[in-house]
Structure formats: C-alpha cells, structure tokens
Amino acid sequence: MAVEPRVAPAPAGQTGPRIVDVRLEGVTKRFDDVVAVDDLSLEIEQGSFFALLGPSGCGKTTTLRMIGGFEEPTSGTIFLGDRDVVGLPPYRRDVNTVFQSYALFPHLSIFENVAFGLRRQGAERKGLRGRVLEMLHLVELEGMERRKPRQLSGGQQQRVALARALVCSPRVLLLDEPLGALDLKLRKQMQLFLKRIQHDIGITFIHVTHDQEEAMTMADRIAVMNKGRIDQLGSPDELYERPETPFVAGFLGVSNLLPGTVAGADVVRLDDGTQVHVAAEALQGRTGRVAVGIRPEKIRIDGGDANTLPGTVSESAYVGVATQYIVETGSGRLTVYVQNVRPGAEGAAPGDRLTLSWSPDATFVVDSTEGSA
C-alpha cells in the first residue's frame, strides 16, 4: 500500500515533546590506523534541517554513511528513533540518500525512477501513480514523467533524485553533498529549493557539505566537524556570531583574530597594549593568553565605537556589495568590509591612516592560536 507522508512537526519554540530522529552514542570509525570519526555523540531532532560541515577528511561523510548503513562503526551505537540500527543494511533502515552523482537509472523514465522505491515496497498500482505524480509536482517536474534522465538538466536530475528519495516518506533523508556538481547560480537556487521542500514536508534532513555558505543558508542546526570530532554545534547565527574555537571562527566566514591576555572581567589587553572591551559572557572563564575575534563587517573605519585601533590601509579591493580593506595595525593585520551603500562614494586608499572601531558586543574570544598548526 502507498506510504503516507509524515506530518511536519510542531514549529520550534512550540510546546510539545522533544522527539529525536537520529542519535549517535560514542561512535568511532577506524580505517586501519586512521581514526575517521572519534567518539562522536550527537542528537538530531525530528523535523530539523541539520548540516554536518567541515573540510575534506574531517569525518562528516563517514558519519553520514554510518547513519545510512553504508559503513559500520568500529564502536558505538546509532539509533533511528528508538531502534538500534548498527548491523542493519541500508534497505532495512528508515532512511534514503541523495548523492552528488544523482545515481538515476538512465534506461528508466522519470516516472519509473521515482516509482522505483514504492515498487520495491510492494505499493499498490492504484496508489502508486498518484503518489509519484504528487512528488513530481512537489519538486516542480510535473509533465516530465515520460522523459529519460539524459533529457533533463543537472538541476532537474537532482530534483528527480530528491523525489525518488522522498516518495517513500523516510524517517530521515541523507544528503551527501548533493549540489556539488551544479554551477554556482543553480547551486544557490537549489539551496533555497531544498530548504523550502524540507519546510513543506517536515522530514528530517541531514546534509553533508564543505561549503559554509551552503550550510548556513539551508540548515537550522550545524555541527562543525574537525579531525573526526564536533568542534561546535549550534544555529548558523550562534556559530557565526559566537564561535567557540579558532577553527570554527576561521572556517565559518572570515575572522580577525588578535592575540592578547585577559586583563579583567570584560577586558583583553592586546600585545601592543591596546585594551579591548568584550561582553562579560564572552570570556567564559578564560584566563591568560586568548585571541580576540572581530568579523570584518563589524568594523567601522570612522572610529565611532568603544573599541578602537589605529592602522594604515595596505590594500583595498572593490567586490561589489562591499569594499575590502587590509589594514596594518600594531596588533596585526585586519580585514575590513565596508558596505557600498552610496553610489560613487569615496573610500579609503592604500597609505591612508584610519581609526578602526567596533562594539564590545561584536567581539568574541577564543583560545589562543599560538602554537596551533
């Protein structure tokens, strides 16, 4: 019989029981002498769009493959809902996967590609056609059911792969860098498309990517992975505005990190003697050597905020929405973005002296980067 789509969960913030769709407990994966995933524990709530983000070799794809059953953990447990799925093959787990390569059947029509999973489940012919057409409508491919994959564009083929994965209403949809083969413009369109689809149907999405902008555009929760572990987990704005480690600060966007020493409950003294005020909670109990962080777009070049630092412009580059400046200061080199809000406005030029300023609330603190690789 046809599988009914799941009902979307209650919106975030609404009262109700917290339901976890995926839970990893102490999961480790070794390939010979290489530890790809290192004692990873993680919970992913039902109905969330969750991203595993990190550079090549950080363990994100291996984690996804273990959830999907394509790899088995060396140790640890994986639950889908309340069910321990370690040892179960992919077809016995309530998940489906969308790959970067699409993995469509070239000899089958679009209709038959999407219907493939339902036929394997033994869905009745009467309900099957309606479910497939409903899914093609959802991914905006109605009227194309008789075509073959080679007759579609890359973006359309990716949507067929998505429809095929969703038609059986899995508990969890796994997305293994699904947009990597698309050009930049189409990739951005598909990011918004996937976000809308996930919101409409309410199925848990777990998305693997090395693209920080893609993760921040699509996901409501992101786990930033580094060397097989999670460096930080949170919402896109939490990770960007309040990174907890130098790695997260540098991987998620551009950060200026200035070395210094904690000099009070809300003060860090930079190495040139400049005192930087931070929000009281930013230090999180740190003492001794730290690094102060400021995002480039948070810095003003007119000296109007509480924290100030004099410097000299060494480079400038017009990049459309903003002008990027490289400013040499006594505490180090800073990158500054100034929005181009007025046509023809004159900016600073190399050699100009500036007083950079930024708010204490826009300042974050991470452990010292000294001695790191």
Describe this protein's structure:
By secondary structure, the protein is of the alpha+beta class. It has two domains: 20-241, 3-Layer(aba) Sandwich (Rossmann fold), CATH 3.40.50; 256-367, Beta Barrel (OB fold (Dihydrolipoamide Acetyltransferase, E2P)), CATH 2.40.50.140. Helices cover 23% and strands 34% of the residues. The chain has eight helices and 19 strands. The chain has helices spanning 60-68, 110-120, 125-138, 154-166, 184-201, 212-218, 236-241, 246-251, and strands spanning 20-31, 34-45, 49-53, 75-80, 83-84, 95-99, 172-176, 204-209, 221-226, 229-234, 256-264, 267-270, 275-277, 289-294, 307-318, 322-329, 332-339, 353-358, 363-367. Strand 4 and strand 5 (83-84) form a beta hairpin. Helix 2 packs parallel to helix 4 (154-166) and helix 3 packs across helix 4. The longest helix is centred in the middle third of the chain and has 18 residues, at 184-201. The N and C termini lie far apart (56 Å).
